[in-house]
Design goal:
The complex is a heterodimer of chains A (343) and B (385).
Chain A lengths: L1 H27 L3 H6 L11 H8 L5 H13 L5 E2 L4 E2 H36 L4 H15 L2 H15 L10 H9 L11 H7 L3 H38 L2 H8 L4 H28 L4 H6 L5 H10 L3 H29 L7
Antiparallel strand pairs in A: 1-2
Helix pairs in contact in A: 1-15, 5-6, 5-10, 5-12, 6-10, 7-10, 9-10, 10-12, 11-12, 12-15
Chain B lengths: L2 E14 L2 E14 L3 E5 L6 H9 L6 E10 L10 E2 L5 H7 L4 E4 L3 H4 L6 H12 L1 H13 L7 H16 L4 H6 L10 H17 L5 H4 L9 H13 L5 E5 L7 H17 L3 E5 L3 H7 L2 E6 L2 E7 H6 L4 H8 L48 E4 L2 E3 L8
Parallel strand pairs in B: 3-8, 3-9, 6-7, 7-8
Antiparallel strand pairs in B: 1-2, 1-4, 4-5, 9-10, 10-12, 11-12
The chains are: A mainly alpha (343), B alpha/beta (385).
Bound molecules: adenosine-5'-diphosphate (ADP) and magnesium ion (MG).
Adenosine-5'-diphosphate binds next to β1, β2 and α1 of chain B.
Chain lengths: 343, 385
């Protein structure tokens, strides 16, 4: 097992190399002028473009530019994010925690809820429970994220003021800015940092800000998992080992929740893994509606402004996320399914 | 001879999108204690549905509509049988795997792929023999030098004594929820596993200690079928149903399994319902034979009578396709098609393919009629003896 993981991680290096070539190639498909434009901030600098091209070697051969880029990256320099007004690496460290924090709560909820609902719907196939589960999850799925988010905001913030948007109340933000010595940002997630700094009031406040975006995220994503789990349950329920289990005297409960469910979880684990990986690129709609400056917002803004460095940094980051997810899914597979051996 | 099970006019339907499949139409048969009853017929004629109806494990969308399934668990006690169709599900649960158990056709899919062999056999014992297992753990704990810390041993003994008195005790359920005590049943599971090892050892599986730790995909088809048999035999059933238990195995393994069943029949099991489409198997192993066609039983007789003196045109056609008695040969199809069970032919379901048919055959289903000693036929024109 350990050697398998090591080998997979080693393999990851090659995949990353491939991805970096592709990403860099796509960037290079823009002309040098276009790429030089990313360095200028005022119309007056337009005349400086040829000079910028020269200084940064933007019309050098592909290989030379690629090697230069890799060299910079290996020094930790991913370039400059104009939207964030900071280096790309710092921007990642700033925006990513906001997205991770959301998914720290949304992902477990999605997985637990999705598997639970899917299991129930599968067991009670074509009954009232099943129909209700399916209809609600399809509605959740097909309702545009922004619409659902806005409705939630209207009810729980506009009408009742219970769950405000943003990440933290202004008074706390002010306090943190004014007294940076009193509050250390260990993780960049206020819920976690609050605990680490023994400031439970901040944690609670951050949680209040999380309720609506987490709800939105869960409702939008959970339907996929419900569907997969339901159909997987139904498929496993028709297998012959179910008859064997019933014929040896197992109760319906044991049959469904032990024999069937454990088998049905195998495909659901893949989907759950991918849903989590996917959500780490940040849901732009959720982040914009609830005013959470996460990685999704930042990537979108950078892409619109044709900022190469952030987009490329994001591509590399996502590649790592997906590859790691894949590895974790494969390991989980081997844990659940004895037929799979990691070799 | 004392009956073990008596099926009376059982109807089972499947409610599908194409319509109602009348899979069993007034099926009646009786199996005696100590005998092997062979059920034969072409594929799709309702043999498996009959078996599943007996155990009440017909899958969705199937439903047993009417009839009686009378079960007489004890050969020495005469009297009323228990009508299984009137009993609650909990009664059936206790019965399945204990008094009546079943071996399935396809060993590759009959075992759960993600549980160990040991777990799957132990389950049977844990469902039905918890009391005895608890008692034997108590006995073990009573012995000195069981290697456990003394107060712990005393506590465990108390817990198992509760289990030995009432395996469904609420207290035990409660223990199972308390983090440390949760593992009270470790000894119980170990006991069940040891019994499982003995069981598969008896069935001729080499290295039983190792095999219980394996998963189904680690075993060959023949070995898997032995495991399936072990599950079925774990609690010494009164009636064992073998639903084409050897059809999907290759010939040598098939012979081994059949011999094994024959051996077991002698010492372990009281009676067997053997479902097959292999007339050679029937000739070798059965005492009585029932022939099914399209959801109806058309002839029941002692095995000699079926082969030497078939009275139903269908039986005789089936036999006609077997060149020599006692020779291994599966059934060949007969002229015409097996009818669609959504709209089965009126009257005798065999009449469209029957060379002796007359008007009455398509109007009214022929009743089962005694035509010789222990020989009944459902046909207006049964062949002369
Ligand atoms: N799960 C099911 N759903 C619908 N129809 C079924 C199902 N199981 C059995 N049947 C119907 O019952 C009939 C008898 O099936 P079965 O008892 O399995 O035949 P066999 O004699 O080969 O064991 C089949 O023709 C089929 O149409
Ligand atoms: Mg069958």
């Amino acid at each position: 097992m350990a050697s398998y993981i090591l080998r997979r991680l080693f393999f990851l290096i090659f995949v990353l190399f491939g991805i970096s070539v592709i990403v860099f190639g796509i960037m290079m498909s823009f002309g040098p002028e276009r790429r030089a434009a990313a360095y200028i901030t005022t119309p007056q600098q337009i005349n400086a473009i040829p000079e910028i091209i020269k200084t940064y070697g933007l019309d050098d051969p592909f290989v030379i530019q690629y090697v230069r880029w890799i060299k910079e990256i290996s020094k930790g320099n991913f370039g400059w994010s104009r939207y964030g007004a900071m280096p790309v690496w710092d921007a990642l460290l700033t925006y990513l925690p906001i997205t991770i924090e959301l998914n720290l709560f949304a992902a477990p909820l999605t997985i637990i809820l999705g598997i639970w609902l899917g299991t129930r719907a599968g067991i009670h196939k074509n009954t009232f429970i099943d129909h209700v589960t399916r209809i609600t999850s399809v509605i959740g799925w097909s309702l545009p994220t922004f619409l659902f988010g806005l409705i939630l905001l209207m009810v729980f913030y506009g009408l009742t003021q219970w769950f405000p948007p943003g990440v933290l109340d202004d008074k706390f933000i002010r306090e943190i800015i004014q007294h940076p010595d009193r509050f250390t940002a260990y993780t960049g997630m206020y819920t976690v940092d609050g605990i680490l700094n023994n400031r439970w009031d901040i944690t609670l406040n951050a949680l209040r800000h999380l309720v609506l975006p987490v709800m939105t995220q869960v409702v939008v994503v959970v339907a996929v998992l419900v569907r997969v789990m339901r159909s997987s349950m139904i498929e496993e329920m028709s297998k012959e080992f179910v008859l064997t289990a019933r014929a040896k005297g197992a109760s319906e409960r044991t049959v469904n929740l032990l024999h069937v469910k454990k088998n049905a979880l195998i495909p659901a684990v893949t989907v759950a893994g991918w849903l989590v990986a996917l959500s780490l690129q940040g849901s732009i709609a959720v982040e914009i509606i609830f005013n959470r400056p996460g990685i999704g917002q930042w990537t979108a803004a950078s892409a619109i402004a044709l900022e190469m460095a952030p987009v490329m940094g994001m591509c590399v980051f996502l590649a790592i996320v997906y590859l790691t997810t894949n590895l974790i899914i494969d390991i989980l597979y081997a844990v659940i399914d004895p037929r799979i051996r990691l070799e | 001879m004392a009956k073990v099970i008596e099926i009376k006019d059982v109807n089972t339907n499947f409610y599908t999108y194409e319509g109602i499949i009348k899979a069993l139409d007034s099926v009646s048969l009786t199996i005696d204690h100590g005998s092997t009853f062979g059920l034969v017929g072409e594929s799709g004629c309702g043999k498996s549905v009959t078996a599943r109806s007996i155990m009440r494990i017909v899958q969705e969308p199937g439903k047993i509509e009417s009839g009686k399934i009378l079960f007489y668990p004890d050969p020495n006690k005469n009297g009323e049988g228990v009508d299984l169709l009137q009993k609650p599900e909990s009664y059936m649960r206790d019965l399945r795997g204990d008094k009546i158990s079943m071996i399935f056709q396809e060993p590759n899919s009959a075992l759960n792929p993600i549980f160990t062999i040991g777990f799957q056999i132990s389950e049977s014992l844990l469902f039905h023999r918890k009391k005895e297992l608890c008692q034997s753990v108590v006995d073990d704990l009573g012995k000195t030098g069981n290697g456990l810390f003394i107060p712990l041993s005393a506590l465990l003994k108390k817990i198992y004594e509760i289990g030995a008195r009432n395996p469904e005790a609420l207290l035990l359920g409660l223990f199972s929820r308390i983090p440390i005590l949760k593992r009270w049943d470790r000894l119980l599971k170990k006991k069940a596993l040891n019994r499982s090892i003995e069981l598969i050892d008896d069935l001729g599986i080499p290295n039983p200690q190792e095999v219980v730790k394996l998963y189904p995909h680690n075993l060959s088809g023949g070995m898997k079928q032995r495991v399936v048999i072990a599950i079925a035999l774990a609690c010494h059933p009164v009636l064992l149903i073998a639903d084409e238990a050897t059809s999907n195995l290759d010939v040598t393994i098939q012979a081994q399994i059949l011999n094994l069943l024959k051996e077991l029949k002698k010492k372990e099991i009281s009676s067997v319902l053997l479902i097959t489409h292999d007339l050679g198997v029937v000739a070798h192993t059965c005492d009585r034979v029932g022939v099914m066609y399209a959801g109806q039983l058309c002839e029941v007789a002692d095995v000699r009578d079926i082969f030497e003196n078939p009275r139903h045109p269908y039986t005789s056609a089936l036999l006609g396709s077997v060149p020599k008695l006692l020779q291994k040969k599966t059934l060949q199809s007969i002229e015409g098609n097996v009818p669609n069970l959504v709209n089965p032919p009126e009257g005798c379901r065999f009449h469209p393919r029957c060379q002796y048919k007359t008007d009455i055959c398509s109007e009214k289903a022929p009743p089962m009629e005694e035509v010789g000693t222990n020989h009944s036929v459902a046909c207006y024109h049964h062949l002369s003896g």
